[in-house]
Amino acid sequence: MTATLQPTPTRIPGRLPLLGHMHRLLADPRGFFRSLHGTGDDVVVIRLGPSPAYVINDRTLVHQILTRDVRKLDKGLAYEKSAPFLGDGLLNSTEPTHMAHRRLMQPAFHHTQIARYVEQMREAAAARVNGWHDGRRIEMDQEIHAFAVAVVCRALFSSGLGDSVAVDVEESLPVLLKGVTRRIALPVGWLEKLPTPGNRRFDAARQRLAGSLGGVIEEYRRRGVDHGDLMAILLEARAEDGGPGLTDQQVHDEAMALFLGGVETARDVLSWAFHLIGGHPEVQRGIAAEVDAVLADRPLGYETLGELKYVRQVITETLRLYPPAWLLTRRTVTELELGGHVIPPGSNVLFSVHAIQRDPAVYPEPDTFDPQRWRDPGTPALLRTAFLPFGAGNRSCIGEPFAWAEMVVFIATVARRWSVHGVPGHPIRPARSPMLQPRDLPLIVWSRPGAR
Ligand code: HEM
């Protein structure tokens, strides 16, 4: 059996001594992974600094890793580099802790809970949008960031105890993510310990966030918890055998996983969506027409979200073109046989959701924004492997229903009252970040005639 395997996948040329392919990763990360996808090889090897990394191009092999070989891999580089502030929460914990905590948190994402969050989301969206003025330039990415922080904070801390945490999250997360980008491109442990300005900013942001979250946890313990929010679920949780609940550190780590998993991701998708909407007047008209017809004079409620089908198509197409978690990482914990290759234990494994979702063999004109392609969304089997913005398998996004609700609520709230327009002469470019996010997104807003 082993004799038929090809032990060494193609090695990508052009690496520099010690730095490996870092220069290409930093210069044009998504272009680099797309070029690897274009080689036609199902698995290739690149170098991250001095260490090899296996890049999986074939989408059925990616699906196999995410759903079948889950015991042979843990989360790998991106999560290891986030561990100093993320701790051991859902995003990077290993089994059996991961599944035990996921089961514990699952009720918080049940549709009855989402219906409750929708009211908070509607209020948080209105709080942003009501402050806008006709013809005014707004920094849409910042508006959306404040909205995304507010909705996760309100779900976690409905008591309002988390208001101070919201400010700390808003300011600290971008600093932490920037540090993680550097640490992934050049994963050399001793460099992370040098007292450089970047490392000092990273440590200060980590301490600030940990301190403020720790303070709120202490306050919840002191006052007793009966708010029915996610923090209460975490603090009151007991193991299935009635054993001890989560320690403060575990509660802290799970809250951090929700912040990191839930804030930047939704911010990024919504920002790109508004960039695309602003540049496509026909799409903007389609959204406005649907929102007017479906909502009429009704308030935006959980039951109406599913009826906004065109808004959902626009979000789906945005998720296809701009998946925030565009590069997922894993590390083999045992030998892994994949598509005829043998990958040794301890190897970094990477795959680009971005490249998979722009594969011309699956999506005609893959770089074109075309929400209509989701009117009749293909065969489920194809989509399972070719559309992965929320991942797949046991580590898929627990917050997906929450994310859909907040994205639809925000777009519909804006579309009811405003039309958005790009700022002439201001190109929108991706930021240097492990997530796929626009560097900034200024837009001009005009109130819609007869808007409700
Ligand atoms: C558009 C918005 C979002 C996108 C695109 C997204 C994407 C993802 C992806 C791709 C993963 C899997 C990562 C991997 O396999 O390595 C993931 C996991 C996760 N997400 Fe999201 N996410 C979004 C919103 C949210 C929200 C709103 C929350 C919470 C409020 C959240 C919490 C999490 C958590 C806790 C995990 C880890 C799940 C586990 O390992 O069991 N996400 N997300």
TrEMBL record:
InterPro entries: Cyt_P450, Cyt_P450_CS, Cyt_P450_E_grp-I, Cyt_P450_sf, Cytochrome_P450_Monoox. The keyword Oxidoreductase applies. It comes from the Bacteria. Keywords: Heme, Iron, Metal-binding, Monooxygenase, Oxidoreductase. Its cofactor is heme. SUPFAM superfamilies: Cytochrome P450. GO terms for molecular function: heme binding; iron ion binding; monooxygenase activity; oxidoreductase activity, acting on paired donors, with incorporation or reduction of molecular oxygen. Heme binds at C397. Gene3D superfamilies: Cytochrome P450. Belongs to the cytochrome P450 family. This is Cytochrome P450. The lineage of its organism: Bacteria, Bacillati, Actinomycetota, Actinomycetes, Micromonosporales.
